[in-house]
Amino acid sequence: MTRAQFSAETSDGGAFVRQPNRFTGRVTPHSTAPPGGGPDEQDRWPLEAGRYRLIWCRACPWAHRARIVRGLLGLDDAISLGTVDPIRDEQGWRFALDPDGFDPVLGVGFLSESYLATDSDYTGRVTVPALVDTLTGRVVTNDYPQLTLDFSTEWQRLHATDAPDLYPVELRPEMDALMAEIHTDVNNGVYRCGFAASQEAYDEAFRALFARLDALSDRLAERRYLMGDAITEADVRLFTTLVRFDAAYHGHFKCNRNKLTEMPVLWAYARDLFQTPGFGETVDFDHIKRHYYGTHREINPTGIVPLGPDESGWTTPHGRG
Q1: CA 264 → CA 39, 100, 218, 269, distances in Å?
Q2: Which PROSITE patterns match (predicted)?
Q3: What is the pTM of this model?
């Protein structure tokens, strides 16, 4: 078996097994903690505009989905935004983009400082997105799947008046099942390809990835979005992987049966979303490429960042109106 990018998250068979999310607190109007307090005995924090800060990286698909949902729901003024540098080294995510290298609200130079302020014994990988309480400096949650669903449900009273319903009650059973398949085979599937430390683990992940992409292509051939005529959370989750596919996953992670641009339905669908307000303007291809190619030294030892692919196609007509 070859050397793994993350040995602690690699099975004996060479498969990548993503670590669980350490912090699972939730911001909710149902918290029994007083304003400025928290969490309560059920790890629920009070819903307060301006109190929490979303830490993201423009390169990270898990963090990108939180950034998109926050914007679509009109929560920009309710939840402040901190951005880490795309290069993650042995010290983890750093606030190198800010003046003097410190987040101006939290006052920390590394996101790991917030993790350790919450759990001084934490030894896992520090991840984004992270929702941090600005009053205590503690991490409320790094549970990215639940975080965006909570933005849609628990944060409703702070939504913009014209905010879309990204998680419709009547569609949730079907959506939850679909998003689980997308997570396993696509969102995490590209990482299972890229971080595989054995041929067998890679082959299995590769086949599952493209079988799921083919199934999604068939589904989207008959409808504009995954759940019908309106954008939902499911589309956000698929988009953040698709938008990185040719720039990173096709070459860097060896997901190379096809490029996204060679899958007509998915390519048109991805362009449709990219050209929708709240999506394309949050994409940073430079950060994406610098992170993947410059951070995973077990996969790309030279650290050379490719100049391609051509990004101009993202703004061409998609024909899915």
Answers
A1: 48, 45, 11, 9
A2: GST_CTER (PS50405)
A3: 0.95
